Each structure stands twice: as structure tokens, then as C-alpha cells.
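Lecture notes, unit on protein representations.

Consider one protein chain, 179 amino acids long.
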Amino acid sequence: MSIGTFTVRPLDPSKDAGLLHRWVTDPKAAYWMMQDATPGDVEREYRRIADDEHHHAFLGLHDGEPAFLMETYDPRYVELVGLYDPEPGDVGMHFLVAPTDRPVHGFTRAVITAVMEQLFADPATRRVVVEPDVGNKAVHALNEVVGFVPEREIDKPEKRALLSFCTREQFEAARGASA
């Protein structure tokens, strides 16, 4: 059963802030740490990301409709500076699925798979790095399904995080195992 087609486009902080505000302040987005953000706060944050050469935000579309947020970053300069030794080809990633009152079984797994495919479509990407909150057990399980292997817990300014990695080979093996 096909869930549909996923594509991404660069996020436009001005045009997309209202939509993102609804997503990041939803109770299910608690780990995004923007629960009390105003629409202006959201626009400022994504404008800051748009202005950062090492951090990028994309709006993910499902069959042409906004459905998820994807961020990529260079861990040598953003998020993980001084917390681990980056390797050539490391790319950091965050993603957030839009809240819905009509959940589709397997949708979040399809989104993270699409995100990983997007990242590994760049031949320079050798390994994807994530650092979710240690308490976010649902995302740890989801990360494992697509091939992430936890390395260790780290202390970031805003949270205790589980540093995890997924190589291209691990992702391909996980996709093959789930087919």
C-alpha cells in the first residue's frame, strides 16, 4: 500500500510561519521546545535559520500538501559543536510531522524514510546525525527502524540528548529489512 508522494521545498519564513506556528505549538510537538512561541517568534527563528549558511529548513509535502518540517545542519558549526568529533560527510537532521486529527498508519515512518532518502540523495552525505531528547522514546524507536544506532547521551544547553548515527549502509540495510 502506497502512502503517497513526498517532496520538499525550501521553507519561506514569511509565508510559512503561520503554518509552522500551529505545528510547533501543538501539544504533540513538545520536544520541539516552542510550545509558548508566538507566530513572530516562529518567523524570527526560521529567518535566523534561513540566514545561517550551515542550517537549512524545508517544508515537506505529502501529495503536494504541507505535512512535515525538515531541518538539516552541519554539525561542525551548528547544534553539536564540541559535543562529538564530526566526520566528513556528517549531516545533522531534525524533522517534525504536522499534527493531524486523521492519523494514517505508517505515515511518520514514511516521512522519516523520505527525509533520509532526501539526505542520502546527496552523494556527499555519508552519515546522518540526530540528537533527540533522551525522553523521546517514540522517536528513538522510529530512528532505530530506519537504521540509527545510538552512541551516547550528551548534554546540550536545552536538553539531555541521545546522540545517534545512521550511515548510508545502515539506512539501506534497514530499508531492505523492512521491505
